[in-house]
Amino acid sequence: MKMPCFPVTLSARTGTREQFLIGETGFMFSRVRQPSPDVVHGSKSELPLTARSVLNAQSGFLDFEGLVEADVRKSADGKRQMGWMLGRSAAGLVSVVITDESECVAQRLIDDLTFAVNEAKRYCASGAVLFVQQESDGKCRCQSALRSVLKVAAIESDLLYKYGDAAELPTWFAYLSPLKE
Length: 181
Fold this sequence. Notes:
- It is a single chain.
- By secondary structure, the chain is an alpha+beta fold.
- It has one domain (36-176).
- The chain is 18% helix and 29% strand.
- The strands form two sheets. The protein has a seven-stranded mixed β-sheet with strand order 3-4-5-6-7-9-8, sandwiched between helices. Strands 1-2 form a two-stranded antiparallel sheet.
């Protein structure tokens, strides 16, 4: 049986938030932890095509479907700099962070990865993924920061790298090629 993918809604009678399942996960938001109204639920939660193909190349992430999505960090002009998504895949729930490379430094990448891991633990997800999206001009501004965090000699675009420092939860990085306009 498929349950509705709307974890939070307003009751017509009371005007207060009701508790609803997050997709078919069996989890519900508690009243205290319900997301703000700018959180997108259900079928609107979609990964960029490149991110989806990178995940589908890994058998555990086949058939990824976004359940909940939120903007975490925005620039002064309102452009999304970091977004978070909880999704389900063949291996279970996955916490995904997509960040742009505009202010790419090693500490920011570690902070973004820590956020993904913390949200994965919060929802008992089986893993966390950090995607770094290249700017549309194709210049690789984030290579040195990624190499220092991952401790590898070279980073290829659109390839999932296992992050070794997060042993308690399987964690991955990927550097995504520019979005096609």
